[in-house]
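Model it.
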Amino acid sequence: LRRKAERARKRRLRLQRRKHEARAAKEEEAARAAEREAKIDQTARWGRGDLPVVGSRRAEQELKAAADSVLSEVRKKQADTKRMMDVLRGLEKLRKLRKEAAARKGVCPPPSADEAFENQVESLKTLLKTRTELYEAEERALRVMLEGEQEEERKREMEKKQKKEREKLLQQKLEMDSKLFGDPAEFPLAHLLQPFRDYYLQAEHSVAALIQIRHEWDQYLVPADHPEGSCIPPGWVLPSLPTNDTWATAVR
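Modeled.
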């Protein structure tokens, strides 16, 4: 009876110690989760622009580095949790094999031992499942944040590209206008071609002139394959280069 009482007391102490260790591990994991949440919140605030930073490029690099660091830590925790689940499954298989071997020898453990083992395993499984769900939620949040940041980066690159295209088109228009009407910087108001310049650019300053010019052009709209005409060109038709010196002299 004394031996049984001593074994029961030791078993209770072991269970209490395991519960204490599990509770301490849970509290430590909660603290780590709070720290990760703080990092995620800080990186998200950087991504939204809530925190003042010096230089957009530096802010983007800090955001990506912080997000990658947190994501790497979450993935490591997921791998550790998966490994612990595999260890639990291995322990269950090992105990089952040992019970079968002991049963063949006529030795059977008491039901209380089976119950204590199953309770402890279920408690650990529940804890690991909770951790797995927490890590998956954190990973989803990080992925959403990173995808949003990548989308913002793609938008910024697209805006830069569109800005360059607009500047290029504007430069082409200026060059074309310079070829047609001369350089505006060197174009005096009393120049001989000033009336022609005013005439061809009147649609840019008058809606009535624009409507009238468009009406005149619409009278000659034909399909591209029409045998008696051609469609209106999308821009200015630049003159061809002089074919002889006399013509070049006249152009100059």
